[in-house]
Amino acid sequence: MRPTVAQTQEFDSWLLDTFEWLRSPTFQQQGHFQLARILWGIWKTRNECLVEGKTPDAVQTLNRILSTDPPPQNSGTLGHVGVIPTRNLNPGIVEPNFRSPASGIKVNTDATFSLDSKRGAIGLIFKDGRGVTLFTHSRSIIASSALAVEALAIREVLLVSTNFQLHEVRVESDCQALISQIKSNRFDWAIAPILKDIQELKIAIPRCTFVWIKREFNTQAHNLAFQRLHQQFGPL
Question: pLDDT per position in the chain (236 positions), as tens?
Fold first, then answer.
């Protein structure tokens, strides 16, 4: 069913008001979260339609958006970390030489890349302050270089952390060149857009640090990325 002229005009008016709101001081204070939960509600409905075959319901989508709790203000807790599902790795495994802040989440991140095919994959391991694996995530990526894939992996960490409203995140990577660029704000032009995204995303996380670690302490994230690459594309 095509929208009527009146519906189209009403939508145009709403869209213009939204653009004005995005430029307002209110958006700088709470708007990021408001926009995120609107987009999340729409995305959730879209997934239910495509994956589960449900009929889209505008009222249910609006109720889902309105029922999402706002982020805690000036809170030193980690929010609702318990909703993070554990997958890919066995839960409850403590890393022997684990080092992390007294509170917060440590994320090991790594990437693997094939120069010939320009295909890569990332692996993320989220752990609590005791070193217990809470959540793992991996996906395949097409990129121009190994450094770009490593940068996209860290960008993914911040996207996931923001989605779960984490307040203290320690990002660990064995890519020393990348960590140095993030800390110094001196960007390689080839990956500058990704690094600028990282700088913007970390603003939403009150305490976010980036740490270089030796490769031998990052084997879980490496293996996760390697497995994803070969599962997705086969031997390269």
Answer: 566 766 666 666 666 666 666 666 655 555 555 666 677 778 777 777 766 677 777 777 766 666 655 444 433 333 333 333 333 433 334 444 444 444 689 999 999 998 888 889 999 999 988 888 888 888 888 888 899 999 999 999 998 888 888 889 999 999 999 999 999 888 888 888 889 889 999 998 999 999 999 999 999 999 999 998 888 666 65
Last residue of a domain, one of 43, 66, 89: 66
Q: Which domain holds residue 14?
A: 5-66
Spatial separation of the C-alpha atoms in residues 65 and 138, rounded to whole Å: 27
Going along 66-185, which residue ranges are E strands?
A: 105-114, 119-127, 133-142, 168-173
The answer to whether residues 141 and 170 belong to one domain is yes
Contact 169/161 with Cβ under 8 angstroms? Answer: yes
Of 66, 95, 119, which one is at a domain's C-terminal end?
66
Asked whether 139 and 124 are in contact (CB, 8 A), the reply is: no
Look-up of token digits 């505008």? 58
* Residues 174 and 141 occupy one common structural domain: yes
Encoding tokens for residue 6? Answer: 């009146």
Residues 126 and 98 grouped into a single domain: yes
